[in-house]
Amino acid sequence: MQLELIRNATLKVTYGGHILLIDPYFAPRHSLPSFTGRSPNPMTELPRSIDDILEGVELVIVSHLHTDHFDAVAKERLPKSLPILCQPGDEVKIREAGFADVTPLSQSTVWQGMTITPRQGSHGVGPVVEKMGPVIGFTLEADGEPTVYWAGDTVLYPPVVETIRQISPEIIITHSCGARWDGDLIVMDDKQTLEVSRLAPQATVVATHMEALDHATVTRQDLRQAADAGGLAASRLLIPADGDTFHLGR
């Protein structure tokens, strides 16, 4: 498989011979409001043009409708004929945006020879979850490809641990910026990301969703320093910059 981090959670993935786009967030730098008063969002530009990013894309996966995962620019620029998989409940709003082929990912779905399975996520713990709303992660499986677990906008909590133990993924993609809402952690931070690596010694962890939003509390350097201090090899924890591409396989 080939994985390219575009920015934030947005990934372009070549898997099973097909190209997927995950959680498209195309807004220009500083075009959206701040979450904390520190900076307008997003804090960085896209690493390349939207036309280049969209080239070859055959399927879009939208994990939830927060603006940093599916924004107005993406709704405008994505071809309306592209198939979209989304979490159950979001399909109506996506169709209202003009998209014709929208399928809620309520169970394992086979698309072009790959199996895409929804996985539980929790956008924090406690009362903040009601503010954040529901989210999903998913797994990818296909002949000749590594099993991939895209955890999504979730903290490390029992269903995530159970997914790792159940499927023994070879690639785990985490959102590791330690974002907080009203002081509550709403995605993984450095400590939880390192715990994922300990839970899955067979896996390569790819830490994303960093240095793009002003409510993040963990930088790429913070995470690398924590990994080094914990004795985690750089080959087991990849921390891509925007625009970086990795070839990952068995």
Automatic annotation (TrEMBL):
Keywords: Hydrolase. Pfam families: Lactamase_B_2. Residues 20-210 form the Metallo-beta-lactamase domain. Gene3D superfamilies: Ribonuclease Z/Hydroxyacylglutathione hydrolase-like. The keyword Nucleotide-binding does not apply. InterPro entries: Metallo-B-lactamas (IPR001279), RibonucZ/Hydroxyglut_hydro (IPR036866), UPF0173_UPF0282_UlaG_hydrolase (IPR050114). It comes from the Bacteria. This is MBL fold metallo-hydrolase. It comes from Rhizobium tropici.
